[in-house]
């Protein structure tokens, strides 16, 4: 059986990424950047069922983004608003920076339609 993620606290399993994203008990709360390798930065989620924080590598969401990618790193320059250095920041970034796409993915995650648990169970038959 494949498993997307198991809650590190209460061991609740999400079988797929879609299931994780649509779960109304998962909320994106932050991003812990890894400036050496962006895919290894962590998206931080709150699992409302047990109030613990779940960290999932950003790379596991990368294919959700189909927009422009920039090659230049602008972190720390005058156009950088410093969001990536603030773990609690979940805002999008409008700089044409290599890191910006990660923050676009965060917006996709935030806007993902949530399903109530019961509805999800019915959908799974
Ligand atoms: Zn949990």
Keywords:
125 residues; alpha+beta; 3-stranded antiparallel beta sheet; 19% helix; binds zinc ion
Write the layout of secondary structure elements.
Elements: E1 5-6, E2 13-14, H1 17-22, E3 26-32, E4 42-47, E5 52-57, H2 100-110, H3 117-123
The structure holds zinc ion.
Summarize the helix and strand pattern as letters. EEHEEEHH
What class would the helix/strand composition place it in? alpha+beta
- Rg value: 15 Å
Beta strand count? 5
Short description:
The chain has helices at residues 17-22, 100-110, 117-123, and strands at 5-6, 13-14, 26-32, 42-47, 52-57. The chain has one domain. The protein contains three helices and five strands.
What can you tell me about this protein's structure?
The strands form 2 sheets. This protein has a 3-stranded antiparallel β-sheet. The protein has a two-stranded antiparallel ribbon with strand order 1-2. It is elongated, with a radius of gyration of 15 Å. Helices cover 19% and strands 18% of the residues. By secondary structure, the protein is an alpha+beta fold. Strand 1 and strand 2 form a beta hairpin. Bound molecules: zinc ion. Zinc ion binds next to loops.
């Amino acid at each position: 059986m494949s498993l997307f993620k198991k809650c590190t606290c209460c061991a609740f399993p999400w079988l797929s990424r879609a299931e994780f994203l649509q779960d109304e008990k998962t909320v994106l709360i932050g991003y812990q950047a890894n400036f050496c390798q962006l895919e290894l930065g962590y998206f931080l989620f709150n699992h409302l069922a047990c109030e613990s924080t779940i960290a999932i590598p950003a790379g596991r969401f990368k294919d959700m983004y189909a927009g422009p990618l920039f090659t230049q790193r602008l972190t720390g320059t005058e156009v950088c608003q410093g969001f990536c250095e603030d773990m609690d920041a979940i805002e999008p970034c409008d700089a044409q920076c290599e890191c910006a796409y990660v923050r676009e993915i965060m917006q996709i995650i935030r806007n993902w339609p949530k399903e109530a648990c019961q509805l999800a169970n019915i959908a799974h038959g």
